[in-house]
Write a sequence for this structure.
């Protein structure tokens, strides 16, 4: 189905044509008509499915159909997202879609000074894209009012709840115009997401564009078994020998990200890093240089898993497997987007075999393993058996140790009793 089928304004059609959009994705085909009809929408969609356009395009059209002057410190649409990166990416997309429309889009997130944001908010905006924490700060500071909001979008709702924004979201809901249209997009329909939907929505149109926790068929997934201490060496070798030009690498911690960036640069591979401790300006610069090809590798922590949209990204590397199996799906969703092919590589050490098994169970497939000569590790099946036998042995040993400890304790007690008895008899003899 093509976008022309839904009678978008010529200005919008021209803009999305310039974005290279032709056919609608499944989530767009289902969500756009429901939003145009004014229904609340509860949608499950994985990353890379085109969900930003699924809610942004019909909102833009409805604004054109019902023009309204935006007053000072007011907005017509509010989009909440979990991270700064995602907020910036959504703003870029909407600005592209609204290229030929006279609309003001404002982004609000932490990591930058509030003053410039406050100035823009007080002038009024048609669309505000914000992270919950910073938006709440502006509400408390009376920099904006949400009483005229017609459209409220919660994007990556499950991620916002996982990150602890539940209380902030509840406070924001209290401040938003009650007569509004609600759109909630989430990768999963967790219990918390369902409860939030029940609280804020009226007879929502429920859409599930994808089976939950599935990976895109456009992404080829492989596993490289490797000892933890040799991961950096293997990554450098693969990038060099296979001539990878644009690689997004995920690490488990900020320290690991910083260390890897330093070592790859020493190997002569231009590398930048983004994580929560980096200033927003530094993160934007790193992402820009990576997109422009000035940096060959971008190292990131989980903060970037759902917030980065890099057109044509071919390679995603899980240098460390994520703590949660579900996050694997979101990480590799950075590649293979919009119908293009991509490759997801996971480095798996002996200690991560159990996590890999959890991931394979979640996505319903066993990943292809590639052993590189010189980097071999022990058999995965043998390792799992060893882990199981160790746990079984540990339980048996604990029982033996407990029994042994009890026997020793009893012997010690008997010894103390004998010693006390002998001591008492000696005292009695001495008295006599």
């Amino acid at each position: 189905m093509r976008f022309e089928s839904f009678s978008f304004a010529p200005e919008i059609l021209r803009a999305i044509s310039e974005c290279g959009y032709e056919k609608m994705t499944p989530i767009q085909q289902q969500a756009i008509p429901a939003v145009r009809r004014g229904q609340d929408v509860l949608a499950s969609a994985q990353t890379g499915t085109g969900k930003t356009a699924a809610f942004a395009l019909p909102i833009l059209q409805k604004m054109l159909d019902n023009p309204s002057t935006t007053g000072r410190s007011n907005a017509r649409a509010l989009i909440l997202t979990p991270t700064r990166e995602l907020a910036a990416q959504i703003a870029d997309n909407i600005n592209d879609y609204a290229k030929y429309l006279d609309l003001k889009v404002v982004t609000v997130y932490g990591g930058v000074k509030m003053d410039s944001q406050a100035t823009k908010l007080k002038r009024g905006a048609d669309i505000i894209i914000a992270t919950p924490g910073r938006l709440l700060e502006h509400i408390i500071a009376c920099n904006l009012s949400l009483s005229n909001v017609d459209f409220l979008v919660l994007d990556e709702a499950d991620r916002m709840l996982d990150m602890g924004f539940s209380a902030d979201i509840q406070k924001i809901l209290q401040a938003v115009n009650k007569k509004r249209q609600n759109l909630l997009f989430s990768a999963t329909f967790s219990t918390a997401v369902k409860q939030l939907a029940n609280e804020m929505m009226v007879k929502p149109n429920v859409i599930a564009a994808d089976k939950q926790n599935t990976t895109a068929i456009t992404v080829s997934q492989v596993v490289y078994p490797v000892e933890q201490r040799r991961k950096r060496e293997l990554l450098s070798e693969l990038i060099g020998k296979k001539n990878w030009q644009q690689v997004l690498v995920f690490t488990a911690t900020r320290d690991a990200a910083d260390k890897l960036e330093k070592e790859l640069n020493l190997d002569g591979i231009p590398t930048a890093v983004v994580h929560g401790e980096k200033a927003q300006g530094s993160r934007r610069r790193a992402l820009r240089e990576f997109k422009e090809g000035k940096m060959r590798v971008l190292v990131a922590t989980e903060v970037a898993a759902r917030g980065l949209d890099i057109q044509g990204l071919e390679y995603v590397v899980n240098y460390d497997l994520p703590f949660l199996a579900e996050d694997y799906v979101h990480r590799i969703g950075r590649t293979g987007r919009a119908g293009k092919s991509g490759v997801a590589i996971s480095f798996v050490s002996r200690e991560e075999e159990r996590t890999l098994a959890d991931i394979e169970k979640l996505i319903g497939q066993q990943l292809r393993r590639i052993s590189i000569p010189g980097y071999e590790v022990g058999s995965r099946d043998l390792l799992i058996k060893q882990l199981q036998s160790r746990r079984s042995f540990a339980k048996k040993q604990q029982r033996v140790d407990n029994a042994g400890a009890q026997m020793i304790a009893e012997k010690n007690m008997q010894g103390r009793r004998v010693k006390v008895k002998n001591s008492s008899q000696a005292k009695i003899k001495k008295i006599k």
User: Anything to note?
Assistant: The CA atoms of residues 35 and 58 lie 6 Å apart. The two ends are 112 Å apart (CA to CA). The domain at 3-208 is CATH 3.40.50.300 (Rossmann fold).
